[in-house]
């Protein structure tokens, strides 16, 4: 029997080791790395940037010549008759006629009022806009990963607090049962202790559910199997060194939303340059080498062929188009004005968001210190209360109050750290300064 007990203990120990190894410790750095590689929105933004990069070419801007090969073959079968000048006539049924033309042509716009150069610059700005959108997507998703990760850390800390209170509730129930056995306590005290223990177990069960669901959400952000098992760190480290002025300066340089508005204004300015280019003539060079062959069953010439080079140029100038040119330029100028307004609006929104988030950040830093002190006091109070409860000098209600105060203090301290971390993440996201 003793051997079997040892064997069972060994098997249980090995099982616990295997389960522990399966619980991968996921650090915040690893989580961000996985998100950068796997997240679907980031992948789409990366592909969109590649599209913008691919579009930046001289050919797409209209700077390069265009060569075209063509072939045309026309055939016919007709019943034909001809009357000549001398009065003779000729007729032929099912007369076959064939015309074949093929060759290569070349066209090149050598001047269009500098529109092609403005178009190339615009394509480069669109590439910058794609890069800014990628940065924005990465910042948002990394911010979500950070928030979800430290939410798990907070919930893990709350689970530990609830585990602690269940241990205390079990001790209380055991003491109550012992006191009842020796006649120093009523059955009511035992029942109250049992009810409180059951309440704590229900709370723990709900917290475990919330923790499991938060794990699934983080796995979603990491674009991996929702059932992937992992654990997170037990510590929330808050950066206490953030300075409002530094964050404002960084936001002016790095915030993707503001950067996008500045790029949009530049794109609008280049659009106006392209529209103004329509006031100038467009000069095209043309060239080609063509082959032509024809066959006719009836007529003076039964077969002809020709081949040769052709070249030249053409120029066009818009003289009057119903004042559309003036209208287009006016609209383009208004678009530039709107872009400038959008920049100013984004600046105001950004400064407001940073100022608000920074004030929240400072408040939560103060709350961390207060709640840390509260937790220490509540812990000391619980220890004293537990000692008094063991010797029967305190009521069960007072003991339960001390117990709940301790648990609530631990939860509030954990929540204060988490809220401060959220404020830190929000500030760094607005400043474009999240490290990944």
TrEMBL record:
The record's annotation in InterPro entries points to: OMP_efflux (IPR003423), TolC-like (IPR051906)
Q: Kindly indicate whether the keyword Magnesium belongs to this entry.
A: no
Extract the signal peptide range: 1-22
The record lists the organism as Flavobacterium cheongpyeongense
Q: What residue intervals traverse the membrane?
A: none
Q: What is this protein called?
A: Transporter
> Cellular location of this protein?
Cell outer membrane
Q: What GO annotations for molecular function exist for this entry?
A: efflux transmembrane transporter activity; porin activity
For this UniProt record, give its keywords in alphabetical order, as a comma-separated list. Cell outer membrane, Membrane, Signal, Transmembrane, Transmembrane beta strand, Transport
Which parts of the chain are coiled coil? none
The organism's taxonomic lineage, starting at the top: Bacteria, Pseudomonadati, Bacteroidota, Flavobacteriia, Flavobacteriales
Pfam families registered for this protein in UniProt: OEP (PF02321)
């Amino acid at each position: 029997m003793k051997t079997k007990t040892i064997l069972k203990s060994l098997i249980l120990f090995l099982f616990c080791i295997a389960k522990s190894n399966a619980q991968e410790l996921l650090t915040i750095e690893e989580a961000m790395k996985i998100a950068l590689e796997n997240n679907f929105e980031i992948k789409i933004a990366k592909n969109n940037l590649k599209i913008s990069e691919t579009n930046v070419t001289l050919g797409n801007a209209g700077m390069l010549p265009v060569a075209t090969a063509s072939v045309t073959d026309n055939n016919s079968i007709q019943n034909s008759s001809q009357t000549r000048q001398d009065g003779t006539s000729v007729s032929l049924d099912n007369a076959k006629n064939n015309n074949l033309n093929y060759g290569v042509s070349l066209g090149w716009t050598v001047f269009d009022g500098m529109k092609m150069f403005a178009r190339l610059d615009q394509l480069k700005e669109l590439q910058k806009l794609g890069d800014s959108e990628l940065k924005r997507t990465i910042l948002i998703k990394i911010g979500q990963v950070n928030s979800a990760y430290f939410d798990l850390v907070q919930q893990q800390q709350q689970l530990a607090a609830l585990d602690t209170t269940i241990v205390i509730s079990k001790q209380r129930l055991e003491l109550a049962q012992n006191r009842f056995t020796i006649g120093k306590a009523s059955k009511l005290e035992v029942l109250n202790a049992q009810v409180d223990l059951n309440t704590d177990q229900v709370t723990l069960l709900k917290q475990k559910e919330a923790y499991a669901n938060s794990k699934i959400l983080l796995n979603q952000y990491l674009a991996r199997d929702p059932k992937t098992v992992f654990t997170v760190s037990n510590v929330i480290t808050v950066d206490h060194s953030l300075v409002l002025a530094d964050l404002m300066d960084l936001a002016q340089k790095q915030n993707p939303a503001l950067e996008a508005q500045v790029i949009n204004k530049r794109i609008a300015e280049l659009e106006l340059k392209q529209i103004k280019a329509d006031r100038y003539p467009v000069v095209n060079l043309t060239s080609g080498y063509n082959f032509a062959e024809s066959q006719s069953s009836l007529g003076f010439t039964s077969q002809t062929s020709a081949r040769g080079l052709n070249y030249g140029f053409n120029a066009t100038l818009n003289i009057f188009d119903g004042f559309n040119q003036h209208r287009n330029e006016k609209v383009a100028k208004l678009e530039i004005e709107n872009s400038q307004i959008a920049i100013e609006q984004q600046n105001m929104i950004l400064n407001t968001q940073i100022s608000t988030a920074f004030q929240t950040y400072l408040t939560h830093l103060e709350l961390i210190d207060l709640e840390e002190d509260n937790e220490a006091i509540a812990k000391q109070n619980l220890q004293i209360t537990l000692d008094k409860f063991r010797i029967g000098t305190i009521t069960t209600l007072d003991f339960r109050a001390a117990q709940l105060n301790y648990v609530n203090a631990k939860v509030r301290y954990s929540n204060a750290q988490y809220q401060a971390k959220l404020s830190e993440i929000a500030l760094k996201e607005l400043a474009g300064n999240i490290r990944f």
